[in-house]
Amino acid sequence: MMPERENILTVERLKAFYGKSQILFDVDLSVGKGEIVALIGRNGVGKTTTLMSIMGMVEKRDCRILFEGEDITERKPYQIARMGLTFIPDRGGVFPNLTVEENFALSLREGYFTPDYVFEHFPQVRGLLKRKGGQLSGGERRLVGISRGLLTNPRLLVIDEPSEGLAPAIVREIAGVLSHLKKEGLSMLITDQNLPFIMALADRIYIMDNGQIKVSGSKEELPREVIEKYLAV
Amino acid sequence: MRFESLIFQLLVGLSTAMLYWIVSVGLTFTFGVTRVLNFAHGSFYMLGAYFTLALHSLTGNFVLSVVGASLLVGTVGVLCERGLIRFSYLLPVPFQLVLTFGLVLVFEDVVRFFWGTVPKMMPSLGIGTVKMMGRRFPLFSFYLIAIGCLIGFFLYLLINRTKWGMMIRAMISDYELATATGINPEVLYATAFFLGSFLAGLGGALSLPISAASPGMGEHIIIYSFIVTVMGGLGNIKGAFVSSLIIGVAEGIGALYFADLTMAIPYLVLAAILVVKPEGIFGEV
Ligand SMILES: Nc1ncnc2c1ncn2[C@@H]1O[C@H](COP(=O)(O)OP(=O)(O)O)[C@@H](O)[C@H]1O
Ligand SMILES: [Mg+2]
Question: With bands split at pLDDT 50, 70 and 90, how would you rate the model's confidence at A1?
Fold first, then answer.
């Protein structure tokens, strides 16, 4: 047995619904402090729904979600966000009709991650400040979205499909950014379908299919064929 | 046609345009934020007029009464939003329309009960006129134009230069992301409703020196506000300004040339614009 790791997030028996149709069936997952956990699976298996349920954006029943030991199951999205659980949606996490600067101003909360930190580590962001979020390229939007998320000084960063739709070089850049943040001690829960990206980043992996967790384990202990089987179309 | 008459009608048109603008920007703004088209916005306009009359008979001070009445109407608006309208945000549009139309009926009866059905005039304020080109122009029209422009400037600053405005714009562009950023949408809905209702009340208050208050005034103005709002593009503030000017000036000038058609002019202008641009002047599809 591994020693009990301290969890920052625990999801127990999550059942989520859109109207009458049930999307998630007893999903259990946890994220340890300082860990990167990947939730993977094909399109439509329920990854986004899982993240949105954690954020309080989807109707859920008979389940429990703990964040830093506090029960957040019944909390509203903005309350959860204010506790330091920062969600970056798959569309990039940037307000399209606000400038990048305004995006940052709106998100800024006191802490370790400051605008200067962002400019120092992701220098290209500085040149984007005056642009509207809607005018950024896919890669720029990702980078700005992650920077925006950082400025909230999150306890846990939840990112939906960070590599989706990006050119390979940019995927490597984003992977570099996230592994740098992991070295800073930031805990992360990410979903993705890009295997090399996941393998480069994740400590542990949950594989989802049809709204259920089918397999989970550390990156080392999960057989590659199993992962590929669940990701293959 | 004499040139002075044209200028005079232009002034009249511009000043009514400012009333349309003040009221309809409130409507289009609350719609932009809450996505509920509020029929009762016209009732808030009416309440603004009646509250001003009441406060004026108490204080004798017009400016004070206008400000007080507008603040009161803003408060009534928030109470309606928190007490009723917010429960309809997730319901289909017909429910929202029935709900806000119900409010219209309630407010009309309230006004009839307290103030009766006979139109009520404001006692003369003695604001006076200025003489230009051998003709007297009402000073109040100039005041209205100035107030309308000031409100535009103030709204611009509020929406583009304050944290509140930034949050409003953020919520309109991505609701989910806004909540995920820690923005409490309920606070924004309520404050947006305060601002929108305040503007309706202000419009009603400022209409008093021009026309009498009557229980039907809300219905009249809501139709104009709808025309302006649709013409400018739903939820678009700049559009509301431009359309108000177009409608007001078209009415003012039109009265000179097609006196028989004055009632129809706003509809004709709206129809002409929608034929060219169905989504409104600044609307997005
Ligand atoms: N707003 C919605 N209303 C109804 N069904 C939805 C909605 N969003 C997603 N779904 C359904 O929920 C399932 C899971 O979707 P999602 O969580 O987006 O999957 P993933 O992120 O893994 O691609 C899909 O079958 C999808 O069709
Ligand atoms: Mg998804």
Answer: very low
Q: What residue numbers bound the domain in which B155 lies?
A: 9-113+140-276
In ligand 1, the atom with minimum distance to the C-alpha of A41 is: 22
Say how many Å lie between the CA of residue A159 and the centre of ligand 1: 16
Number of domains in chain B: 1
* Nearest CB partner across the interface for B182, out of A78, A89, A105: A78
pLDDT given for residue A104 in this prediction? 97
User: Which letter does DSSP use for residue A5 in this model?
Assistant: P
Distance from CA of A39 to the nearest CA of B (A): 20
Q: Which residues contact B65 (CB under 8 A, 6 or more apart)?
A: B51, B52, B53, B55, B56, B58, B59, B205
Domain-embedded: residue B282: no
Q: How confident is the model at residue A14 (pLDDT cuts 50, 70, 90)?
A: very high
Domain ranges of chain A: 1-79+189-233
Q: In this predicted complex, what is the ipTM? A: 0.92
Residue B217, judged by CB atoms within 10 A of its CB (0-12, 13-18, 19+), counts as: buried
| Full-model pTM | 0.91
Burial of A216 (0-12, 13-18, 19+ CB in 10 A): middle
Ligand 1 binding pocket mutation candidate from A27, A42, A48 (most atoms within 8 A of CB): A48
Residue B283 maps to a domain: no
Residue B120 in any domain: the answer is no
Task: Give B178 to chain A, closest Cα distance, Å.
Answer: 8
If we measure between CA atoms, which residue out of B232, B266, B47, B254 comes closest to residue B152? Answer: B232
pLDDT for B285: 52
Give just the sign of the alpha carbon dihedral A160, A164, A168, A169: negative
Cα B179 from Cα B171, distance rounded (Å): 8
A1-79+189-233: CATH architecture: 3-Layer(aba) Sandwich (3.40)
Looking at the domain assignment, is residue B28 inside a domain? yes
What percentage of chain A has pLDDT greater than the value 70?
A: 97
Reported for A209-216, long-range contacts at CB under 8 A and 24+ positions apart, including other chains, are: A209/A41, A209/A42, A209/A45, A210/A25, A210/A45, A210/A46, A211/A16, A211/A22, A211/A23, A211/A24, A211/A25, A211/A27, A211/A45, A211/A46, A211/A49, A212/A24, A212/A25, A212/A26, A212/A27, A213/A27, A213/A28, A213/A29, A216/A29
pLDDT by residue (tens digit) across A150-170? 999 999 999 999 999 899 999
One-letter amino acid for residue B218 of the chain:
G
Give the separation between CA A140 and CA A150, rounded to whole angstroms.
Answer: 15
The model's pLDDT over B242-275, given as tens digits with 9 standing for 90+, comes to 999 999 999 998 888 887 888 888 898 899 989 9
Write out pLDDT tens, residues A69-82.
999 999 999 999 99
If phi > 0 it is left, if psi is from -120 to 50 it is alpha, else beta; for residue B116 that is: left
User: Ligand 1: does its nearest atom lie under 6 Å from the Cβ of A43?
Assistant: yes
